[in-house]
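Deliverable D2.4 — example input (structure tokens):
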């Protein structure tokens, strides 16, 4: 059975896509069979993995609209243990239609049953804010890894995420839990400690990953080149941090 983890976070630009791509790649590099699902019409994860629309016929839009099976929308990447279910901009149109019925928020979870025995990890990249697609991505998972920023997040954001977890657990009867808080664009541990204290988040301190992702120009370069940073520049501080964060994640699930 896979560990299904959605990379969550309310604010745009907190690093959900870069985290989804690089954690999935790091897990695959360590031999864990991993599926990365792009559940965002911005398709950042798809682009970051260098997947072009010529590389596939079906994507997540086909799956959610019932026109393709999950297995038909899975594409191999250049990394041996990493597959991806890509997305395209037209995902947003299907989402608008499906959003009319809240029962549809469980669709991805339902379809993933077909492949949950084929992977060690399924990592889902979700859009910001609370839209049909972000709720669908969270409902599909058993775990959330929350992308945090000492510059953006606040206690209100965190509490609204907890309210969303509660909504999903009760409405869809899924055992969704938080697997950890991963800080991005952060320079020191002290910064995180004082953030947690100032934001009155001390009671969830134990969820914070030891590893944090530093601000690193290698990330911008890897985006331009459409290669995960852990492949583009394995010696960069960001790559080193993502490899360690993947180890921490794997240790949690062992
Ligand atoms: N640690 C970092 N160092 C340097 N640049 C970063 C870092 N983290 C994120 N970025 C930059 O910030 C931008 C936003 O990151 P990303 O796309 O992962 O955020 P997101 O949370 O997925 O955004 P959205 O909510 O729009 O989906 C990226 O273009 C990336 O280049
Ligand atoms: Mg994103």
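Example output (designed residues):
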């Amino acid at each position: 059975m896979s560990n299904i983890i959605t990379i969550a976070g309310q604010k745009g630009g907190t690093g959900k896509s870069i985290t989804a791509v690089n954690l999935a790649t790091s897990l695959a590099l360590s031999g864990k069979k991993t599926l990365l699902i792009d559940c965002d019409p911005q398709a950042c994860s798809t682009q970051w993995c260098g997947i072009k629309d010529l590389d596939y016929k079906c994507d997540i839009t086909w799956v959610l609209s019932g026109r393709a099976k999950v297995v038909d929308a899975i594409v191999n990447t250049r990394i041996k243990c990493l597959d991806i279910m890509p997305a395209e901009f037209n995902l947003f149109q299907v989402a608008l239609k499906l959003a009319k019925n809240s029962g549809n928020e469980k669709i991805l979870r339902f379809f993933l049953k077909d492949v949950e025995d084929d992977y060690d990890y399924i990592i889902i990249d979700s859009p910001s804010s609370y839209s049909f697609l972000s709720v669908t991505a969270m409902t599909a998972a058993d775990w959330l890894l929350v992308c945090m920023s000492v510059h953006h997040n606040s206690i209100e954001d965190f509490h609204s995420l907890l309210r969303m977890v509660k909504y999903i657990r009760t409405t869809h009867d899924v055992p969704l839990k938080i697997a950890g808080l991963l800080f991005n664009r952060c320079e020191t541990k002290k910064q995180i400690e004082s953030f947690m204290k100032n934001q009155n988040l001390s009671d969830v301190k134990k969820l914070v990953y030891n590893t944090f992702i530093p601000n690193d120009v290698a990330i911008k370069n890897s985006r331009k080149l459409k290669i995960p940073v852990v492949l583009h520049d394995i010696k960069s501080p960001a790559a080193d941090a993502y490899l360690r964060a993947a180890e921490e994640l794997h240790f949690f699930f062992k």
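The beta strands are 3-8, 34-38, 75-76, 82-85, 121-125, 143-149, 177-184.
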